[in-house]
User: What shape does this take?
Amino acid sequence: MHISEGVLSGPVLISGGALTVLGTAIGLKKLDYDRIPQVALLSSVFFVTSIIHVPLGPSNVHLVLNGLLGLLLGWVAFPAVLVGLTLQAVLFQFGGLTTLGVNGLILAVPAVVVYYTLGPAARSRNRALTVIASFLSGFGAVFLSSLIMAVSLIFTDEAFWPMAKLVILAHLPVMVIEGLFVTVCVQFLKKVRPEILVVVYAAKYND
Assistant: This one.
């Protein structure tokens, strides 16, 4: 779910960059340094899963896992996503350096939304509630990402309307797959390492 360089307008790039810098700053301030290995691992998983992709016009379709990042990291998903995107841009030319801000926003904002809206339910002791919240976390995060991507394209040029619609439609299968994947992951973690599901921020910023 990367937008390639040379597609977006200057104002969209600048706005996306500014918002991603802000989100990353918040994420770094909230980061509990004892959990840096966990953040690094999740950033690596995000990096690897995004490598396998299918080109789609100025973008591409692939697994994202930002719903899972949101449940496990909260605001720290911003720096985790940004590191993964930077490595992909430098090593494999996925996306680009000028679009890092917008691509980071596309992937990290839904992760934070999932953390606040579905995180408590996903960590619930009620199995049915956990399953539903986990599926919606994976499904909803990809849906929000595709929606933000579509809006970015439309704000650049209204001629991108057909492509914006195609981006959302093309990601529908990914939404379902991610929902199922996140559900399996959460159920597994609740059995073997339930403490991982508890997002720990630096003491000054505990919610």
